[in-house]
Amino acid sequence: MARPIGRAAPAPDFIAVDVETANADPGSICQIGLASFAGGALVDCAVWRVNPRAHFSPHNIAIHGLHAADVRDAPDWPALRPTIAARLAGRIAVSHTAFDVTALARACAADDLAPIAARWLDSARVARRAFPQFARRGWGLAGLAEHLGIVFAHHDAGEDARAAGEVLLAAIAASGRGVEDWLLAAHRPLREFVDAAR
């Protein structure tokens, strides 16, 4: 059951995840960031460069500024996966849209590795339900961050992960729903939240 609107809900630990990719293939991860939150605050942010063993497209380079030379000596995904999997195992893992979840799944599948086991929560779906003005449009990370006063360097995996986590914290504060509540509520029809806000 949802808590009363406007009443802050306790925030269990969660980890926000973001990736940058070398090209249009979501599995071509070249950077990954994990932002850990506990007690409603950021406690740690870790970033790794990843050698995707793939070409870097000019389009993607223009987005995140990373080139093949920047990751030449970085571990590839099979080498880094155990570290990421250990940090996410059994945890609530937050990503802004499903892109990052898809990217991790594709990267694992490309090397016949088991998918990352986590309880995934999409902060974009949460924001669309917690903030009625973003239900239909404007729920990209940059737009939400600007509205909520979250300052970050967009398209850096660590910064984007932190911002996604802070969006979730803002949604918790605004809605009174905790993280566990949102794991279910984020998949309920959007119209239920839009109608309730009228």
TrEMBL record:
<dbReference type="GO" id="GO:0006259">
    <property type="term" value="P:DNA metabolic process"/>
</dbReference>
<dbReference type="GO" id="GO:0008408">
    <property type="term" value="F:3'-5' exonuclease activity"/>
</dbReference>
<dbReference type="Pfam" id="PF00929">
    <property type="entry name" value="RNase_T"/>
</dbReference>
<feature type="domain" description="Exonuclease">
    <location>
        <begin position="13"/>
        <end position="177"/>
    </location>
</feature>
<keyword id="KW-0269">Exonuclease</keyword>
<protein>
    <submittedName>
        <fullName>Transposase</fullName>
    </submittedName>
</protein>
<keyword id="KW-0378">Hydrolase</keyword>
<dbReference type="InterPro" id="IPR012337">
    <property type="entry name" value="RNaseH-like_sf"/>
</dbReference>
<dbReference type="InterPro" id="IPR036397">
    <property type="entry name" value="RNaseH_sf"/>
</dbReference>
<dbReference type="GO" id="GO:0005829">
    <property type="term" value="C:cytosol"/>
</dbReference>
<keyword id="KW-0540">Nuclease</keyword>
<dbReference type="GO" id="GO:0003676">
    <property type="term" value="F:nucleic acid binding"/>
</dbReference>
<dbReference type="InterPro" id="IPR013520">
    <property type="entry name" value="Ribonucl_H"/>
</dbReference>
